[in-house]
Amino acid sequence: MTQAPKTQTTFLSSKGWILAFAASSLLLLFGHSSRIKQIDHVSNLAGGDEIAIDPSSPTGYENGFRKLVVPEKNTNSIQWIMQVQQLFEEDTLLLRHVDYDNAPDGRGVRTSSLYRWYLGSIAFLNSLLTGNPTGVSVEKAALWADPILQLATLLLLAWFIKRHFGTLSASIFAAGFVSLFPLSTAFAPGQPGESSVLIACHLGAIATLLSAVPTPLPSDAPPSLSKRRRLFIASGLLAGLGMWIGIAGTLPIIFGIVLSGTLLAFLNTRQAKSDPLPWRAWAIAGASTTLVAWLIDRAPAIADGSSWQSDFIHPLYSAAWLGSGELLRFLSMPNKGSTRRKVTVTVLCLLPIAGLVYLSSVNSSVEGWSLNPVSIKLTRLPIGPDAAGFVEWINQDETGLMLIATLLPLATLVSLAFHLYKTKLAGSENRALLIILGPVLLAAVFAFSRLGWWNQVAALTLLLATTALTSKHVSQALKWSLGAPLGFAALLGLFLSYSGTGKASDNLVETKDFESLIERHLAQWLAKRGAIPEEVALAPPTVSATLSYYGGLRGLGTPYPENVEGFSTAVRLSAASTADEAHALSEGREVSFIIHPSWDTFLEEYARLGTEHPENSFIALLNRWLAPRWLYPVAFQLPVVPGFENEWVTIYRVGEVQDNSSAIASLFEYFLDTGRRQLAVMAQEALANNFPEELVTHIATAQLAIARGDPQSLKLAADKIIKSINAGTDFYLPWEFRVSASIVLANAKRIPETKTQLEICLEEITTDRIRRLPTGSLTNLLLLSKALKADFPDPEVKAYAISLLPKQQQAEFQH
User: Fold this and answer.
1) How far apart are CA 524 and CA 43, in angstroms?
2) pTM for the complete prediction?
């Protein structure tokens, strides 16, 4: 590109880019600080402000909990936060294994270390400056990681563009970078992720190439050639970092550069004086970076076959990159020699590329290709469409302004293509623009199948328009055809990106944030009732991730493509055709809980994936309340959340096989505790019809009488309970039902018998038994103990029981 004239003298012409950068930075800071305040506000809701800091915990909070509510339930961000906290816990730079999914064995880690280091470095600085525990600092770093990266990218690229293309170009870039939609929303606070790093790497790689393809230089200008080579090396390094972050997000960009380079080489060789570009230097830089990345992330586990799978960073990518560079260099040469030499060189260059294609298609898994760092969502803000593909998006309602703002930058491609066709690619300025056309066209193709690619399209079209608008070789008509749609898109982007920012408020809490609050409460409620730390739960993939994040539970299937084995086990367990098969799989995986929320029905999807007859699956049995006898329903009351009044979550605890009457009685108490009165009546009738003389039947009848407010039926049931106890039928009565007997006898005002049963309960009480009680029964047990002055024999057990209550109730029992 032609550099700006050296005669710039006015303050506006020489320092205007600084003003544009300052204004753009202030706009970003306003938007990000407003969103961070809202994230903090949401995180403090539903008991979040009561989660105490514990410096000895790896997460920085008590019991290994986490507080930060990650916007949009971004499970990718959740994983980065957990992994960086584990880095600090293990005091290492390289993370090889995690155990929050594929329980109990866990799995290997195959994501990039580079982003963990970036997030970890911000956390380290936060901890150093504020004194926060490192676990808490990681959550703080998650808030600012993307905003810091966005500001750094804006500053460095604006400075680079000003230096190579002029002040006006830098000003246009700064304004567009913070206003074009969805690019301006790609760096979201509270949602750390590698997709934003890719945008920065790709912009840098393309910008350096654009600045390195000027008007052909004479052969006696080695300093300029050296500078060009350095710029090509910088481009290769930045593209190599992109490969380290995620090959699925960077390969299309590199392939687009190679396509553009091929066409550019063809055009250059038609000139009388050809000026070959230093593609070899570009390829060596990129290949070296890729190889170093593989050595860091994979080579220590070189004996592991997964280190050689080509769906992740792999030495073959380095070889293929070198082959591509040599091919571009060869094609750029004016004199390629004999036909035999042409064929030989071409074959040798294509050989590593062919090897990579073969290995990728025949001898590798699909994990890495699914591990796409480019987001499946258009934007990480809640305003974005809940769609994966373009066709699905345009079929949704209310897509108008967002669709226009997203597609308008493509008009610059149409205008530029028409201009290049009209001028027949004459002139080096036009040919230099070809460098960016290949990547942006391929990004646009991918964007129609994965909406996150529109961020790359917006970024690259902005770079293209920035350089074209300030070029003296581009006609005024073309500048208007490029600038008008880009300017209109920027205005729409400003409205879409910043109109929702402002003061933190409950009215701004999104549905997914409410789901996160519920799942945080559920995860921490379950974690407190776990027999051992890090209990294993079968739940929908996204819920499994949030349970691990908020409560430290371990899951089977998660949304992470690396976790193929855990996902497959979850499918087999959900689709099991018999209760015995499900029991064996549960025991083999040490499953403690099965969790089925109404707002996420993926357990049914698990079953559909695993059997042709999902109606006969294990999950279908649970949905029909036909749980096997080794499952105990767990009563859990959802916190009061607007819009979730009709939602529910079904929880089963895996335990010893119980007899039939106890199983039905457990289900009855669950229905009663969760407000399902009609189902409770049906369960009580089943007990009365099949086990009329069982003690648990009399207890259930009394509980139903209390719920109905029927004192006469309660008196009759209490008489039968006492008669059965006097006859010795309570010898094998499970402890939880003895607690229930104490409560119903107290309601029947049979105080001596109540005290007797209560004393037996307290003699046999253990922390393991306490954690199995519903919150209501536990509260009543403590109330009875206080009223009848029958204290717990072990103060630590009592303290544990009180700790399981909501914090606002704990003070009543502490003395």
Assistant:
1) 14
2) 0.91
